[in-house]
Amino acid sequence: MEKIKEYFPNLTERQIEQFGALYGLYCDWNSKINVISRKDIENLYLHHVLHSLAIAKYITFKPGTTIMDMGCGGGFPGIPLAIMFPQVQFHLVDSIGKKVRVAGEIAASIGLENVRTSHSRAEEIKEKYSFVVSRAVMQLPELVKICRKNISKEQNNALPNGIICLKGGDLNAETAPFRNFCEITGVDTYFKEEFFKDKKIVYVQI
């Protein structure tokens, strides 16, 4: 939690409370439903919350922006981003019901009024959004193919609408088809911890 406050010094008391509540909530839910690796729960803030917030360093979403978190699992990156941007609307979508249920319960527990959840496949979602975000869900070409239909033509951010995903490893092959519409940024641009050394933010303009 101290890392969150270090990298985001302008958090409100409400945001600090909400971020602070996440550890206990995820520990409790993880004892019933395995949404985060048992070995990794101790690293919740570094590996999951702060990693999700790399997107908040990359772009400051304007109030009124709409975002779908595709394949949200237990709520990453959607829940940390929803805390960070309370005036932005988030739709968390996952095909695994028990995981999206955890995301919804945690959002409700910390009073997030800008989050809704759907137990659904992304292919079934017809709504339009400013951005689709995801964390290591699938290869980029497949992600773009599924989510292209969901990107709105109405622009209200400094960055044109598109897909923003958190990925790791060698991305040359999967980003090659989008070279003219794609930007890759190292998460270690923003966070100095060793964990982020090979982590990337991939943005594709749609």
Describe the structure.
- The structure is a single chain.
- With 206 residues, the protein is α/β, with parallel strands linked by helices.
- The protein has a single domain (2-205), classed as Vaccinia Virus protein VP39 (Rossmann fold), CATH 3.40.50.150.
- 34% of the residues lie in helices and 19% in strands.
- The protein contains 7 helices and 7 strands.
- It has helices at residues 2-7, 13-30, 44-58, 78-84, 97-109, 140-147, 172-175; strands spanning 66-70, 89-94, 115-119, 131-135, 162-168, 182-186, 199-205.
- It has a 7-stranded mixed sheet with strand order 3-2-1-4-5-7-6, with helices on one face.
- α5 links the parallel β2 (89-94) and β3.
- α3 crosses α4 (78-84).
- The longest helix has 18 residues, at 13-30.
- The chain is globular, with a radius of gyration of 16 Å.
- The model has no long low-confidence stretch (mean pLDDT 96).
Query: How much of the sequence is in beta strands?
Result: 15-25%
The helix content is 25-40%
Query: Ranges with pLDDT <50 over ≥5 residues?
Result: none
Instruction: State the name of the first-level CATH class.
Output: Alpha Beta
The gross shape turns out to be globular
For this entry, what is the oligomeric state of its chains? single chain
Strand order of the largest sheet: 3-2-1-4-5-7-6
Biggest sheet statistics: 7 strands, mixed
DSSP helical segment count: 7
Structural class category: alpha/beta
Name given to the CATH homologous superfamily: Vaccinia Virus protein VP39
State the total count of DSSP E strands. Answer: 7
Q: What is the fold-level CATH name, i.e. the topology?
A: Rossmann fold
How far apart lie the N and C ends?
34 Å
Rounded average pLDDT: 96
**SSE string:** HHHEHEHEEHEHEE
Number of domains: 1
Radius of gyration, taken over Cα atoms and rounded to an integer in Å = 16 Å
Q: Label the CATH architecture.
A: 3-Layer(aba) Sandwich
